[in-house]
Amino acid sequence: MTVRAILGRAGGRHGVWLPLVAALVVLGSAYVGVAAFLSGHVPAKARVGGFAIGGMTPGEAEVTLNRLLVAKTSLPVHVTMPPRSVDIQPSKAGLTVDVQATLSDLTGFTVNPVRLWAHLTGEKSRPLIVAVDRAKLTAAVTTAARTLDTSVRQGSITFTGGRTTAVRSVVGRAVKVPETADAVASAWPNRRTVQAVTTATQPAVAADEITRATKEFGRPAMSAPVKVLVGSPLRATVVLQPRQYAAALSAKPDGAGRLHLGIDIDTLMTALRAAAPGVESTPVDATVRLIADQPVVVPAVLGRGLDKRSVLAPFLAALTSSTRTATIREVPVSPKVTTATAAGWGIKDAISTFTTQFPFNPPRTSNITIAVATLNGTLVRPGDQFSLNATLGQRTAAKGYQQAPVIYAGRLVKDYGGGVSQVSTTTFNAAFFAGVRIDSYTPHSFYISRYPEGREATVSWPDVDQRWTNDTGSGILIKASVRGSNLTVTFLGTKAWDIEAVKGPRRNVTQPQSIADARPDCVPQSAAPGFDVTVTRIFKKGGSVVRTGQLNTHYLPENNVQCTSPAAP
Question: Which is nearest to 337 in space by CA: 385, 373, 383, 301?
Answer without folding.
Answer: 301
